[in-house]
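User: Could you check the structure of this?
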Amino acid sequence: MAAPKRKAPGTPGAPEKKNRKLKKAPAAEKPPAAKKPPAPAAPQGSTEARPEERAESLSSEAELSPEEKRVLERKLKKERKKEERKRLREAAAAAPAQPLPAKPSGAQLALDYLCSWAQKRQSWRFQKTRQTWLLLHMYDCDQVPDQHFPTLLAYLEGLRGRARELTVQKAEALMQQLDEADAGPGHPLLERSRRARQVLQLLS
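Assistant: Sure, the predicted structure tokens are below.
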């Protein structure tokens, strides 16, 4: 039996397979191009900055914000102070060392304390060290000159307690020492005994 003739492609009833084959296959979709990762930002201090970033940095340097101006001023001020201190140290090292002023002696401090008691009662403050020095040296004309002794007697009127008792005992011991020495005129103990007698008259 003869094989049936195939119908022409254009005739009706022809299979659509050839038409499908004849149709141009659609182009295979290309995978989307991989996006390039953004360029890493230039690290701080790097000179390889984009032109836009360079322009922004230049404009920010030209026009500093108020806060940046204050920071800059503080830095400049610190640097000036540092340079000034350095200059002063160098000047001090170059200058000859000046002798320190002599400290006042214990006698001068005690007499100043006594004068302060007499003249500035409101601002005067008690100092045990100064009082002890006065009680110890008040019979010595060289340590406590005659011009200060009347003020010292006025000060002794305020003595109380143990300090008063010891002052009286010492004055009595000086008077007894004078009697035992049988000192004549011009003896150094005579002036001491005169002062001791005045102290006894005041405190007894």
